[in-house]
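Standup notes
- DV: blocked on the single-chain target, sequence here:
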Amino acid sequence: MGIFFSFSDENGAYEWWRSSKFLRAHPWYVRSTVFFKALEWKPLETSFNNLKSQYDLPANNEIKWSFAWSLKSHRKTGKPITEKDKYYFLKNYDPDKLERFLVEAVALLTNISYCKVIFTVTDNKICPRIQESRLLRMHLQESMQRLEMDMEQDEENLCVPFIDPVSRQKDKTLREAYSELYRNGDLYKRYSHIKDSLNIEYSHHSVGIQVADFLAGAFGSLLNERDLGREVYRRTIHEIIRKKADGQVSGYGVREVPGNKRVRAAIVELMQGAYT
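- DV (later): unblocked, structure below
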């Protein structure tokens, strides 16, 4: 029997009504789900904390993918970092060094014997006006289906899912959607190899959620054609992303939400662009 942990986090934002200003800031909404054997969690935590020490990062402060972009933005504009900023503790830290840490941190996943990542992606530029609660449920369902497909390869497998909190109402929506899908299944799956409750886990307490944040941030950066996201994709993500037996990623490790052939083709082109 294999016990697995999955960790999920988001990058970007989604709104039912999207202004041009919102779309400039958030052209994509991405959710990552990374899963591996529970026995691999402790070595990952140890390696992650050791890496933070090597990069002179404070042990008790959470690092988020967005901090590197924020530090670079302050350096470019000259705007001071204030105590109100979540990354104030990094006010004197080199943003290029922080980027190197992020690359190395995601690469730790390649040391795990069994590790896969799933991305669910919404193109905000062309997505229909779907209520946010429904769209979040769609993202959750896509990742649940893929988790179940992998877990059911061994009847005794069980995956315990953890997700980063969003807000009280959204957390309730996700938990209720998860519970309903677990109890009743859907047109494609009965969920018998994942635990019966979705666990909300605070990112500052969880290495798994922090790594999921890095993965979601890296893939969002790739979609926005930024060099850091492309580097992480080439170095690590392409190796661990869930694939079909023939190596196909689209539709297996990357799912557009809602389904759309144009969006799928655009994502494939952006992934291929990481190598140009």
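- Follow-up: The first strand starts at residue 3 and ends at 12.
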